[in-house]
């Protein structure tokens, strides 16, 4: 049996620093959905001295572009997309208090170092389990960039959404890495 | 084709394969029949993963000792059952539609343009699915209906039509690679390249994977060989003995990497390695590795 601690947002740095790579965690509370195009726009806003469209401090971002919802469903299948595409656009967000990211796949050395510097965590969700993962999302609304469709920024409410700590704030990593 | 596809299979009642004095009779087929068949097959494949894949996944669970690996495989199996029951997509990335048509040379397609008809079927199938296609790779404007599909046509003997399809997610597509090795690299160089591609993909391609490998041909055709290898059901073996032994050696080496389900460790990095070979030039060994993810949506339709 896997032990599965539960966390909820907002997440503070002290709590984030206690989470260890390889641990399965259930996430509840407000989580923001954003992927490629939304990241570009957030960083453009920050560069222009504008605020982000949602409070970054203590926040968790889920890299996702949900499928359309079937009639009677609140949200369509919503699994993680590849996180590495967001690497360069993630650093300015971590600087401003982003505490967690949920996605799949390796992160860059810069992102992993920033997790240690700021006390943040990168979580892996199961790619290919999108139908089941969507059952742990109990509310959603678009908070910005509605013109981007499935790439808009969403505010989700998570209920015990299952993830695994892939990279922790002490340099630990659960992903297997082969020597070059 | 030597493989019996046990994936989502739909047979249509038509008069295909009727013969007179051992010769097939020419047959008119309205392209609207192709649109309808493609629409139905794509809709079904989006929410129903092939039984050979689900069987292989369940078997893999018994070989894992890591609680996390067992938990992940269990979640993937639960997800497949839930998606099929609810008739919703197993994965939000329902991919790019890739259709491989074998059209009997005695078939006469009527009622319109076959390419338009196939894309029409794709548009209708994706009405309730995510639209993931941009019309131009640089301008990147979404076409809004998931068309166009990636189409491949083969002319074959007879008067039947067979359509095989993949709904190919791009997490795994992005980690696929192609190389033209010098013949001096030998079989060792070929194996090293294939294993290296899987190793570098790590968690990004959403393992457990199906590894499609093409060896031979040319720059363009080797990628197609690798893609066609993904049409084979798990458990199938290449009929050429030397290729079959390469497949079994590669699956053992790849699973010994320890990448495991979702890259979080374990002995199930791939559920199958399918290798297809073709004639090539004296100067090269083209090798392509096309990865398929933990949502390998696939179908066959016969008309």
Chart the SSEs and their pairings.
The complex is a heterodimer of chains A (180) and B (303).
Chain A: E1 6-8, H1 13-18, E2 24-33, H2 36-47, E3 60-62, H3 87-95, E4 100-103, H4 109-118, E5 121-124, H5 130-133, E6 137-144, E7 153-167
Parallel strand pairs in A: 1-2, 2-3, 3-4, 4-5
Antiparallel strand pairs in A: 2-7, 5-7, 6-7
Chain B: E1 8-11, E2 19-20, E3 23-24, E4 27-30, H1 31-47, H2 51-63, H3 67-86, E5 96-104, E6 107-110, H4 114-125, E7 150-156, E8 161-168, H5 170-173, E9 177-181, H6 186-201, E10 209-217, H7 219-229, H8 241-255, E11 270-280, E12 285-292, E13 297-302
Parallel strand pairs in B: 1-13, 4-6, 5-7, 10-11
Antiparallel strand pairs in B: 2-3, 5-8, 8-13, 9-12, 10-12
Helix pairs in contact in B: 1-4, 2-3, 6-8
Describe, in plain words, how this protein is organized in 3D.
The complex is a heterodimer of chains A (about 180) and B (about 300). By secondary structure, chain A is of the alpha/beta class. Chain A has helices at about 15-20, 35-45, 85-95, 110-120, 130-135; strands at about 5-10, 25-35, 60, 100-105, 120-125, 135-145, 155-165. Chain A has one domain (about 5-165): Fe-S hydro-lyase, tartrate dehydratase beta-type, catalytic domain (fumarase), CATH 3.20.130. In chain A, helix 2 packs across helix 3 and helix 3 packs parallel to helix 4 (about 110-120). With about 300 residues, chain B is an alpha/beta fold. Chain B has a domain at about 170-295. Chain B contains eight helices and 13 strands. A five-stranded mixed sheet of chain B has the order 1-13-8-5-7. In chain B, strands 9-12-10-11 form a four-stranded mixed sheet. A two-stranded antiparallel ribbon of chain B has the order 2-3. In chain B, a hairpin with a 2-residue loop joins strand 2 and strand 3 (about 25). In chain B, helix 1 packs parallel to helix 4 (about 115-125) and helix 2 runs antiparallel to helix 3. The longest helix of chain B is centred in the first third of the chain and has 20 residues, at about 65-85. The model of chain B is unreliable at about 1-15 (pLDDT under 50). Classes of the chains: A alpha/beta (about 180), B alpha/beta (about 300).
């Amino acid at each position: 049996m896997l032990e599965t601690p539960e966390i909820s947002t907002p997440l503070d740095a002290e709590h984030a620093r206690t989470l260890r790579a390889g641990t399965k965690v259930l996430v509840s509370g407000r989580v923001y959905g954003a992927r490629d195009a939304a990241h570009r726009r957030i960083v453009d806003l920050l560069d222009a001295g504008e605020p982000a469209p949602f409070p970054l401090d203590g926040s968790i971002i889920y890299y996702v572009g949900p499928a359309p919802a079937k009639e009677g469903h609140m949200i369509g299948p919503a699994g993680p997309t590849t996180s590495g595409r967001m690497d360069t656009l993630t650093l300015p967000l971590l600087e401003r208090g982003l505490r967690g990211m949920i996605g799949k796949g390796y992160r860059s050395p810069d992102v992993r170092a920033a997790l240690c510097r700021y006390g943040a965590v990168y979580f892996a969700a199961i790619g290919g389990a999108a139908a089941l993962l969507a059952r742990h999302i109990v509310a959603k609304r678009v908070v910005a960039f509605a013109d981007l469709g499935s790439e808009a920024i969403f505010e989700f409410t998570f209920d015990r959404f299952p993830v695994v700590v892939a990279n922790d704030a002490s340099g630990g990593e659960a992903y297997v890495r082969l020597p070059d | 084709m030597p493989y019996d596809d046990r994936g989502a299979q739909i047979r249509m009642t038509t008069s295909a394969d009727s013969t007179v004095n051992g010769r097939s009779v020419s047959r008119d087929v309205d392209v609207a029949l192709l649109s309808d068949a493609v629409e139905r097959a794509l809709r079904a494949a989006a929410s129903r993963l092939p039984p050979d894949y689900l069987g292989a996944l369940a078997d893999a669970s018994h070989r894992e000792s890591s609680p996390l690996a067992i938990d992940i495989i269990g979640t993937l199996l639960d997800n497949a059952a839930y998606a099929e029951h609810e008739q919703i997509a197993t994965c939000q990335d329902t991919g790019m539609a890739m259709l491989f048509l074998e059209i009997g040379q005695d078939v006469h397609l009527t009622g319109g343009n076959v390419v338009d008809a196939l894309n029409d079927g794709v548009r209708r199938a994706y009405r309730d699915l995510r639209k993931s296609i941009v019309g131009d790779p640089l301008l990147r404007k979404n076409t809004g209906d998931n068309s166009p599909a990636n189409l491949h046509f083969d002319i074959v003997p007879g008067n039947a039509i067979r359509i095989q399809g993949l709904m190919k997610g791009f997490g795994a597509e992005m980690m696929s690679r192609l190389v033209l090795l010098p013949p001096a690299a030998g079989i060792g160089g070929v194996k090293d390249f294939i294993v290296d591609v899987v190793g570098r993909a790590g968690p990004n391609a959403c393992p457990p994977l199906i590894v499609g490998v093409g060896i031979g041909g040319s720059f363009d055709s080797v990628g197609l060989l690798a893609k066609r290898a993904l049409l084979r059901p798990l458990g199938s073996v290449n009929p050429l003995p030397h290729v079959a032994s390469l497949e079994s050696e590669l699956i053992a080496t790849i699973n010994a990497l320890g990448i495991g389900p979702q890259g979080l460790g374990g002995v199930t990095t791939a559920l199958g390695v399918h290798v297809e070979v073709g004639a090539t030039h004296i100067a090269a060994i083209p090798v392509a590795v096309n990865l398929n993810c933990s949502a390998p949506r696939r179908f066959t339709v016969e008309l």
